[in-house]
Design brief:
Blueprint (H helix, E strand, L loop, with lengths): L25 H12 L1 H16 L6 H28 L7 H22 L5 H16 L2 H24 L21 H40 L9 H17 L5 E8 L2 H8 L1 H18 L5 E6 L2 E7 L3 H16 L3 E3 L2 E3 L3 E8 L7 H17 L5 E3 L5
Length: 391
Amino acid sequence: MTSEAPAAAPRSTEFTWLSNPLDWRAIDRLILLGALVMLAPGLFGAAIIAAMVLTPDYLHLGVAQPLLAFYGLHFLLLGGFLVAALRRREHHEDWPAFENFIIGSFLVNVYASAWLTGTHFAEGLLLIFLGISIASALASIRKIRISYFWGCGVMALMAIGDFSGVVHPAPLLAKAMINADGSLVLGWLLIRIMLAAVLLSIMSISISAISRWVERENLYREMSTIDGLTRLTNRRSFIERGQSELSRAQRMGESPVACVMVDLDHFKKINDTWGHHAGDQVLVAASAIMMSSARPYDEVGRYGGEEFAILLPGATLESAVMVAERIRERIASTPVEVDGHTIVMTASFGVSCFPAGDIDNLNDLLKAADRALYVAKDSGRNRVCVDTSAA
């Protein structure tokens, strides 16, 4: 029996090779990484050819020629993998064998080149660093970590070889690339300048990859903590902050922590009458009022739908009621203009405070504020009510 090839995964119609690589599928990222790695044998090979033309007396041709053949083989194998990957991407999401070859062959190429030219603690180490920086954003971080530890071992062996004197340093070079007056041989100097330009280019790519990674991480962190519409703390983050504040208050001898639950009145009617885009603008306007009314160390969160929660560390029940009343008045006196219509919004408030009554933890504090909120709604809305357990 022959196994069927996996079905092609749905492809985004907006995919382009110029978009953010972190948004690509794994195999597409490997194609980009493989193309970047092809720079190593291509440029190293060009440097060897230039040295054989410009400074032939300074090279061991018995080493240079096999090294040039090695670069050519590496370049051809990478090219073959890339062609195969471009075909494979139509039906597969990933290609671990290609990934292994990219990482392994790059390490071998750089270590061999750096040792043969005696630059393993300069350009060689820098190239490994830049390669790992780029690959960390495009390939398996586990494989990159393994390659790093292997690299540490190889560098240690190279250092032992250098100190032992048994291994000939820079086997590719027949003599030092330095003139009698101490200046570098012109051909070697030109090669070093060319490699420096290449390294600067790779640094630019590395910076771009890392900056994209940082942007993505920051966006993910923001999405996991901030409500996308109102820019307030989301429910999960609000609860985490609340638990932290309650724990701190209990450690400090039951320092007060107040909570205000807020619910916009008749919000469904706003959506039904003027549309959801109008409801969104009302939510944004109310959120802005709550944020501007809070202290820098208070926490204002969107608890769900049109319901909000405000955490007031160090606030007594009386001061929390004053804050809630101030916000209630500002909301009621701030109409929202949508498509030429004026929407008057109001909100109901429930206030609770720790320590009081049967409030021992954050869940109790939220429940108490929620009970007070329902009293406010049942008694006519657009008002502030206090949890009776605080009495």
